[in-house]
Amino acid sequence: MKKLAMIAICAALLTGCATSGNDSLRDHDERSVSSYIVEGETTKSEVMEVFGAPYDTSFTDGGREIWEYAFSDMSADAVAYIPVVNWFGTSASGTQKKLTVMFEDDTVARYSMTESDVRTGTGLFK
């Protein structure tokens, strides 16, 4: 019986949190990003050095390059741990950060850093 209880506790601890995306955004907010990125001055290589490779790149009609970074940190809500109730679905909540940087030639033309609360659900908790 003790062994079964220990397995259940370990499983609950291991399934509680999930992160995805660019880990370099974990500790950044709009204020800290503005200390690294200055429009008209910061270069692509400087952005790459601080934030790493972007998860997506695209181009505008005018030929400007856009780099996108994202990071999300989610935790299972309490309902995920209620026996029988979790058979009908589960939910998780957390935060999502997104950094978008637009370059003209090799220099940052504009950038945007956003952070928002997010929630996902399955089954009855959609």
UniProtKB/TrEMBL annotation:
<feature type="signal peptide">
    <location>
        <begin position="1"/>
        <end position="20"/>
    </location>
</feature>
<protein>
    <recommendedName>
        <fullName>Lipoprotein SmpA/OmlA domain-containing protein</fullName>
    </recommendedName>
</protein>
<keyword id="KW-0732">Signal</keyword>
